Amino acid sequence: MSSALDIASAFVEDAPPGEVPLTLPLLHITNILYIKSLTSDTDPALVQKLRPAFQRYNEAQFATAKLPGASQSALISEYNKLPDGRYFDAGSSTSWEFDHVTQKASNPQSYSLDSPHADLMKSLLTALSTYTTEHYPSSASTVCPSPSPSSSDTVHILLTATKLSPSNFWNGRFRSSYAISPSSSPPTLTGTISVSIHYYEDGNVRLETKKPISVPLQSSSASSIVQAIAKAERMYQEELNRALAQMNEESFKKLRRQLPVTRQKVEWEKVSGYRLGSDLRGGGAAPGK
After folding, report:
1. Helices marked H in 247-279 — which ranges?
2. How far is CA 131 from the centre of its chain?
3. What's residue 22's pLDDT?
4. Which of 7, 61, 177, 185 is the most buried (most CB within 10 A)?
5. Which of 210, 243, 215, 242 is nearest to 229 (CA)?
């Protein structure tokens, strides 16, 4: 049987975008009460015990954080995590500590990127920034070398764009993660595009999609890589729009009864004059009258 900690961890890691942060005092208290209500655990340190679950959630969701004194948000992931638990951003040459429970960054320090592909990564950062600024408001992106020594030739490209509208009962996040080995011939861009949307006004509807990407490139230049990313993401968004339109026009309609049990269309403009049990049975007086 799963423990209270396992149950709460599963809820945290499966939370929709923007619905698990504990940054604001009121939201912090509310979410703690929600988390504790899911279990019978009365341990006051339960939320602190959930720190590993918060870390997995933040890294998987590409959570963002405002660095002290910075104007742009920095991205959190397993790829830009240092061995000491800090995170780094190649664009600003900064590393920082990150509290996964409160989602706050602190103690920024200068960081020097050490990679044989440092020049390519800098060019990628510039091209990626232009692309995301044009297409994704409220976004963050980064480029980093592989954290695994066995794949030191690999460069990772990460992008996240979040739009939260709790007052309208919906939240959504777009994420994409790519990898390329610049020295390979021919170079191939591989990755995954993920979309997560939650709509919860008078109901609970959630969309989770993932699209694997594999694109052969003519060259490993920054412009070629970002152009391939832009094309792959545009094609997937168009594909997703078509699928949702088809679902609305066909699939959802099949879930609804085409005609009432009388097999006759209801004339709604006359509904106030219907005599239940008479007109709805086909007209005429009710039996016995």
Report:
1. 252-254
2. 19
3. 46
4. 61
5. 215
